[in-house]
């Protein structure tokens, strides 16, 4: 049995074949000094990668003005996370804009959240 060498496409090499593979880097969100940040998620996004420099609360919904509720919203430690968005998460209207809301758990100066969409 001989093994054949195969060249993988960019999508196959990054395991994004089912999601497209077109990464878009967003402008970093400034979360310094207890400022809540909002990010409008592109309607075509299937995966959102979150890279946070400090512990944060997050919430995802369809309103830009939603405030973080520290008693019940998701808390993520510093690190890198990926969130998958199944098709139809907006319900009956696929044109509804989703928003990621971010707030530092402990207020610290000069911190960012970096985002990639695919």
Q: Give the biggest beta sheet.
A: 5 strands, antiparallel
Uncertain segments? 8-18
How many β-strands, per DSSP?
A: 9
What is the 3D shape? globular
* Rg, Cα atoms, Å: 17 Å
Q: What is the helix/strand order? A: HEEEEEEEEE
CATH hierarchy: architecture: Sandwich
Ends distance: 38 Å
Summarize model confidence as the mean pLDDT: 82
Amount of helix: under 10%
Structural class: mainly beta
DSSP strand (E) fraction?
Answer: 35-45%
Domain module tally: 1
Number of helices: 1
Written description of the protein model:
The chain has a single domain, classed as Jelly Rolls (Sandwich), CATH 2.60.120. Strands 1, 2, 4, 7 and 9 form a 5-stranded antiparallel sheet that branches. Strands 3-8-5-6 form a 4-stranded antiparallel sheet, with no helix packed on it. The chain has 118 residues and is mainly beta. It contains 1 helix and 9 strands; from the N terminus they run αβββββββββ. The radius of gyration is 17 Å and the shape is globular. The longest helix has 4 residues.
Q: What brief labels describe this structure?
A:
five-stranded antiparallel sheet; 118 residues; single chain; mainly beta; Jelly Rolls; globular; four-stranded antiparallel sheet; 1 helix
Helices and strands in order:
Blueprint: H1 10-13, E1 24-25, E2 29-30, E3 37-41, E4 47-52, E5 56-61, E6 74-76, E7 79-84, E8 98-104, E9 112-117
Antiparallel strand pairs: 1-9, 2-9, 3-8, 4-7, 4-9, 5-6, 5-8
């Amino acid at each position: 049995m001989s093994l054949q060498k195969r060249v993988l496409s960019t999508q196959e090499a990054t395991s994004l074949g089912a999601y497209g593979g077109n990464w878009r880097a967003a402008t970093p969100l400034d979360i310094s000094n207890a400022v809540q940040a909002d990010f409008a998620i592109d309607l075509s996004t299937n995966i959102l990668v979150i890279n946070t420099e400090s512990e944060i609360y997050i919430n995802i919904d369809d309103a830009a003005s939603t405030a973080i509720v520290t008693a019940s919203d998701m808390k993520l430690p510093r690190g890198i996370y990926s969130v998958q968005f199944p098709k139809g998460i907006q319900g009956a209207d696929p044109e509804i804009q989703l928003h990621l809301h971010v707030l530092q758990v402990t207020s610290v100066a000069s911190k960012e959240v970096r985002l990639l969409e695919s």
